[in-house]
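Appendix B, Record 12. Input sequence as logged:
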Amino acid sequence: MHRIILIPALLAVLAAPLAAQVALPGVSVPRVGEVLEPVTDTLDRTLAETQRLADRLARDRLRDIERLVRRNRDIIERDARGEAARRGELLVMDAAAGDLAKASGLGFVALGSESIDGLGLSVTRLKTPDDLTLAQAEELLATLLPGAVVSADNLHFQSGNAAGVVLPLASAGPANGTSVPVGMIDGAPGPSVPVAAMRGFAKGAPTPSHHGSAIASLLASAGVGPVRVADVYGTDKAGGNALAIARGLGWLVAEGSRVVTISLVGPENPVLAHAIAAAQRKGVIVVAAVGNDGPAAPPAYPASYANVVAVTAVDGKRRALIEAGRALHLDYAAPGADITGRNAKGKRIRLRGTSFATPLVAARVAQAMGAGRTWRTTLDGEAVDLGKKGADPVYGRGLVCGTCTGR
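Logged structural output:
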């Protein structure tokens, strides 16, 4: 962020007219080297500070996962990659009946099989043997069933802070009538942010949350609708898991959502990858946040899945958020700080995070589709090029919804 500010200043010195660098009578003009030296020293210090912050964010992420697992050992466990997942359960897809019988012979217990409405997928839940950790059971089952999809039920986390300072209320903009239906996968919004439909996919869901309320209020401020919400958290300590997101996505697709916004991040998960690919085959555009774990964190999912619209965030001065994470690709930036939304109690609050940039981009996609336009061409035409010329890993294809401030 600071590097982007300093480099133009440095170039300005180098590109200054010759007359400005020639000594005039009675005026002492520093040599180019004397000007550049403190600038480059400052740049080096800034880059070092940025790297330290990135490393700290990555450490914070690991510490937060460790704390979550430690405090909820009865329901959360680490998978074979060390990622947080629902304890003692594995998900299996594309397994033959005989394969599941083999698993049963080794102590795996079938908890049920289900078809995910709207996506044409079938998932079987297996309880792991009592004498194996989740990681051990996952590795054993993957070896036993080489032709099947075997996965832990990984947890995904909201990627923004929606517990900010309460501000005076502002009115919401009216729906513009040109939007296709929009789906939202998150926590549930409070009653002050009305939506067309809501359904729970976790214990205690739907339960109003600050984060879900903020996302829904940003969609409302953009004037899109109808908006349907899949609450994948509720009161479940292991909420936001891959199966809940897949179920929620299936419901939204079955209900007619053409664009789905997901401001959650987690590790790569085969079941969720299959679910998103199935939704995309039906023409649904999935828009997802890159997260706030910093650039040193692993790539965020679902933003990193193929053809998902990956979104990062900028502040009110159009500077990339220093905490913005990364994905395997980046499509657009949108305001994710110096904007406001509603919390679960209906209070207007300040927001910060890539979570809140994501529904703004999703709204633009939905509006373009509703107007019968090609959404990619429309957003590319609106996007303001920031950073390096053309698409880049900091701002993607440019800033969308640059004047949006929320509600």
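Residues 1-43, 167-176 have pLDDT under 50 and may be disordered.
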